[in-house]
Amino acid sequence: MNFSLIGALQILFKILIFPGLLFVVVIGLFLAGIDRKLVARMQKRVGPPLRQPWFDFLKLLGKETIVPHAANKAVYLAAPVIGFTGLVVMALFIPVFGYSTFSGNGDLIVLLYLLTIPAVALIIGGSASGSPYAGIGISREMVTMMSYELPLIIILLSVARKVGGSALCFSLGQIVNWQASNGCLAFHPALIPAMLAMLLVIPAEVGTQPFDVAEAETEICEGPLIEYSGAPLAVFKLNTAMKMFIMTALFTNLFFGGVSTASLIGAGIPAIALDAVIMVLICIVVTFLSMSLIHAITARFKIEHLFKFYWTVVAGLAALSLVLVWFGL
Amino acid sequence: MSYIHFPVIAVMTLFMGAFLTVVLGRHSKGVRSFIALAASCVSFALIAMLVKPVMIDGEIISYWMGNWAPMSGYAIGIGYEVDQLGLFFALLVVTTILLSAVYSIRYIEKDSSQDFYYVLFLMLSGSVLGLVMTGDVFNMFIMIEIMTFTAVGLTAFRNTSFGAVEAGFKYLVIGSIGSSFTLFGIAVLYGQCHTLNMAQLSAMLYGNHSPATLMAFALMFTGLAVKSYIVPFHTPAADAYTTAPSSISMVFSGMVNKAGVYGMIRLVYIIFRTVDMPSVQTLIVLFGTVTMFIGVTMALAQHDFKRLLAFHSISQIGYVITAAGLCTSLGLSAGLFHAMNHTLFKGLLFLCAGAVLRSTGTTNLDQLGGLSKRMPKTTLCFLVGAFSISGLPPFNGFASKWLVYQAAYEKAVTTGNIFYAFVTVTAVVVSVMTLASFIKVTQAAFFGQLPARLADVEEAPGLMLLPMYIMSLLCVGTGIFYDKVYQYLLDPAVRAAFTVSNYIDRMMGDGYAEAAGVEDVFASNPHFSYWNPVIWLALFVIVFCAAYICVVTSKGSRGQILSDEGGAEDGKYATFFSGEKALPSHVAGSDLFWGFKTDWKGYFRVMEGLHSGIVNDYALYVVAAAAFVVVFTFAFLR
Amino acid sequence: MMMKRRLRNKMMNVNYIASVILVVMGLYTIITKKNLIKVVLGMGIVDYGINLFIVSVGFNDKAGATAPIYNMTELLGQAQATGVTQFFVDPVPQALTLTSIVIGACVDAMALSLVIKLYKQYKTVNTDEIRRLRG
């Protein structure tokens, strides 16, 4: 790696603006706004304006930060930052419009593990706050994580098998390129169960109703977040919004990757812009299907039901896909 | 050429240290600590000096005791042979010994008969070091036996503490059944080949199996599997790791079960070279997968800090065995890397548990809580260890688990066998469960509210923290510079395991392997990169930005306990307390994850029934598994 | 001569069968007997079975062989005179057996001392009652 000044500036640009920090934050909060609006409309409410997540974020930044007496201060304050870091690094691994900052052979597994970092940060932060409500919250968060991790890995392996054939393929970039030449994976019948499973994994990963058992406001008062206030809370809320974008973008890359208008209107800036719009549109649709719709029509799970649901229904769907793909469909 | 004596001197130093401790160290604490430290330092230095010739220059050291070199193609004397694989494990062993010796000085200062502790400790160290460097199967058996005795002695060292003698007895019974199987296998092998030298055996057995050698393989495989504590041989390990002093638990998980793993790798890769057979791969991977799953689920059910760590130790060995059983160069790299990382992070975690035990007097997770306020340094080390074992990037556990998944899935897609795909899935799920149980420990012991009983607990002394810091640094360092680890340690070791002919020729003379028809099958060299230097810049910038948002924009204040003594004196908050006293409440370890446990009630009930604590049952598992291996061998091996 | 050799071979098979029977008996004892002392005895029996096996291995195909106690001239003279090199049994297994016997004795001693300790602490030698560590 050549560390020239221009190179360093380019890297900084990638990290801070596009497709890193700023981009993910903007799109994430935008998706969060859309989600709230959609849910409200489905419940026959007017709903908040699209900019509401921004207002919430800025408001929280201005509030006082209180560190509880029982808390371990350093860990309590560091946790949101660590989660945030994990998410931004993850954004750098996901190809946005066929454009990713880092790529390597291990993309999928690295992503799987980077995905756990925000959840672990939430858990460690809640644990460090010392509240018994947070204790119950982190237990539920952890069980939720165990629940969706099984289907998620099976989904990733099915996709890897479909794309790689009899060679090892864990690279997201390779998956997107494969789809560019062979058609979107969403239109391969064998992978449709995996796609459905992925649609169900996203809300659990993000933590929206009915899978928000960890934060269940009505029972355990936001669980791990109970003691948080001010800027750390703002960062946690931001993390949730960013996760929304990252999960939907991951979905888009896995199942609708390689959509490109370059062949229609010629390569160049307009094509990239059009691709970007298409990708964001797909993300919005996925947000609607997997989060808003389910949110609006269901009530919260109990934790043991959540676990059973993921390890039977969702994992079953994913495993069906894996078996179908394995035997050549 | 003087370094050819180093392996033997390193082993002898440790045994001499044990002897000198008895002679000189009976009455003086300083003398015996000095002897232990000096012996471990010397052997560490001697082994470290072998890295250059063996690992980098690719030389294999052979050493005939009493210069009894082979005559007319038959090995007569006892030979030591240090190839890259052996040296890799020897490095793990000496590192563990040195750190444990430093830790022991303060850790056991309140115990009686410390001289015996050091005698047993040094003998254990010497035996394991000898085991990984010997080139003679019977010598290996002797070392295994010394290892078992001393390990039993050390398990029962605190013989007044809860269950220590019981654990020692179970360990002895199961361990000696394992040793007996090994010896039986060696005897059958000797009856067939009339030699005990590994290199010569390897040449004679290469692609040349008779029913008798298959029987020997099954018996030795079982015997060494007992020593590496894979399920169903894991039961004494769980007890022994729990009751032994923590410095010894670290040695157990850091090198004693690695000795078993080393033995299995040596057995299937070099001596019998059966690992090329798909059926043997299936057998080993099956054992490994079951081990990692049962280990981790049992760990989730534990209430005791050290017992939980013990089951995790078993579970992580499952990863090592699984990866090594794949018989690809990527798989063996992953296995060895995970073995090394396991030595580091599990050692670190046991040392943390020891620090907690020494400070609070208990390892019961239901009685601990909030220790991060009183023991911040231990907490930091624990978190590093916990994140490493859970495989969070950028710690070392991630790098090796990542390789394990890749290796398992590569095996699945290249062979088209869906079994390996489910192995990969199991490995990932086990990793998440590992994370879950460390979250449990973190919450139950280090975070949450500090019970009044522990209000004046003290941080561990510096001499105990030092090895913990070193191991933490190693955990982070090997995770970040995994490519260097691969280049200098793993790749040579993997090559050594696949190039049997070098091993044979060095010991028995050039051309011996060729004459016996031994061919090397070295698969391609794995390439991997998930992490590059740029990402460090990225992380730094991001952390800076996020911290800026948190710190600069916030107006902080510290929460107060409002009603410490009877009711809220501050009228402003009285409504919230209704005049009642605020009681500390802490979500203890055994209450966490009940949502998960209720779904698995049946499974946990069966598992608890199986881990009955009755030594007859444990012996039954060993014998049944041995029978299974024998039947499997004769049914599927060709 | 042939008869004698065949008989000898049959006797060797008896050795092997006996050793396996001993090992199985020992394992059976360990698995079924609830008394700690009997468990230790079982471990001993397994050891004896294996020792018998190792010693028998030394007699492999060496009918009429005797103990390997010779001086060098006898050794060389006999070999040159008869061309037969297998007139004494393989000495290595005997060395192995000796080592193994010593180790077995140590195992038994250690196990019995632990049993004494256990009896003092638990007031019983019944394995069903010595199970504080379980689950």
Structural summary, described in words:
The complex is a heterotrimer of chains A (329), B (638) and C (135). Chain A contains 13 helices and one strand. Chain A has helices at 5-16, 21-42, 52-61, 73-93, 107-129, 132-164, 172-182, 192-206, 217-220, 230-255, 262-265, 269-297, 303-326; one strand at 64-67. Chain A is globular and about 60 Å long. The mean pLDDT of chain A is 79. Chain B has 638 residues and is mostly helical. Helix content of chain B is 71%, strand content 2%. Chain B contains 27 helices and three strands. Chain B has helices spanning 6-24, 29-48, 51-56, 84-107, 114-133, 137-155, 164-193, 198-205, 211-228, 235-243, 246-271, 278-300, 305-325, 329-360, 371-374, 376-390, 396-415, 418-446, 462-480, 482-498, 500-508, 512-515, 533-552, 574-577, 594-599, 601-610, 615-636, and strands at 61-64, 79-82, 555-558. In chain B, α19 crosses α20 (482-498). Mean pLDDT of chain B is 83; it is low at 562-568. With 135 residues, chain C is mostly helical. Chain C has one domain: Orthogonal Bundle (Helix Hairpins), CATH 1.10.287. In chain C, α1 (2-32) packs antiparallel against α2 (36-57) and α2 (36-57) runs antiparallel to α4. Chains in contact: A-B, B-C. Chains A and B meet through α1, β1, α4, α5 and α6 of A and α16, α17, α18, α23 and β3 of B. β1 of chain A pairs parallel with β3 (555-558) of chain B, so a sheet runs across the interface.
Q: Summary?
A:
The complex is a heterotrimer of chains A (329), B (638) and C (135). With 638 residues, chain B is mainly alpha-helical.
Characteristics:
heterotrimer, B: 638 residues, mainly alpha, two-stranded antiparallel ribbon, 3 strands, 71% helix, 2% strand, C: 135 residues, Helix Hairpins, 4 helices, 0% strand, elongated
Q: Structural class of the helices, strands and pairings of chain B? A: mainly alpha
Rg from alpha-carbon coordinates of chain C: 21 Å
**Most extensive chain-chain interface:** A-B, 88 and 79 residues
Tally of helical runs of chain C: 4
Number of strands of chain C: 0
How far apart, in Å, are the first and last alpha carbons of chain B? 43 Å
Alpha-carbon distance between the two ends of chain C: 63 Å
The mean pLDDT of chain C is 78
User: How would a crystallographer describe the biggest sheet of chain B?
Assistant: 2 strands, antiparallel
Low-confidence spans of chain B: 562-568
Number of domains of chain C: 1
Percentage of residues in strands of chain B: under 5%
N-to-C SSE series of chain C? HHHH
CATH class of chain C: Mainly Alpha
Shape of chain B: globular
Q: How is the largest sheet of chain B built, in terms of strand order?
A: 1-2
